[in-house]
Amino acid sequence: MAAPVDLELKKAFAELQAKMIDTQQKVKLADLQIEQLSRMKKHANLTHAEITSLPNSTRMYEGAGRMFILQSKDEIANQLLEKQKTAEEKIKELEQKKTYLERSVKDAEDNIREMLMSRRAQ
């Protein structure tokens, strides 16, 4: 009778290990994306701060591929603010995804602990 219990526990541990490896990779990816978005947000913020100090008559160009397009100061400032807002929203989404992944791994660990305790109690 001990053999089926051992096989069941072995299977549960294998599933947990696979889930943990997968989740750790997803958490690392989320961390990298958050870091990249934070950098992009900071860059847009600094650029916006510099642009606001320039006079309105300053000619500004937006890079598009291998060319530059003349844009008004207001358009470029709005694009930079939109970039910041988008980055902030994505960072929040990634943080929520990360906490969900960590919580799901913890739940799986707790389930296996409960299984071990119930086996020991028998």
Write a compact overview of the structure shown.
By secondary structure, the chain is mostly helical. It contains 2 helices and 2 strands; from the N terminus they run αββα.
**Helix-residue proportion:** over 70%
Task: Measure the end-to-end span.
Answer: 12 Å
| Contiguous runs where pLDDT drops below 50 for at least 5 residues | none
C-alpha Rg (nearest Å): 25 Å
- Briefly note the structural class of the backbone: mainly alpha
Average pLDDT number: 89
Shape: rod-shaped
Q: Give the H and E element order.
A: HEEH
Tally of DSSP helical segments: 2
Question: Would you write up a description of this structure?
Answer:
This protein is mainly α and 122 residues long. The protein has a domain at 35-40 and 74-110. The chain has helices at residues 2-52, 73-121, and strands spanning 60-64, 67-71. The chain has a two-stranded antiparallel ribbon. Helix 1 (2-52) runs antiparallel to helix 2 (73-121). It is rod-shaped, with a radius of gyration of 25 Å. It starts with a helix and ends with a helix. Keywords: Chaperone, Coiled coil. Belongs to the prefoldin subunit beta family. GO terms for molecular function: protein folding chaperone; unfolded protein binding.
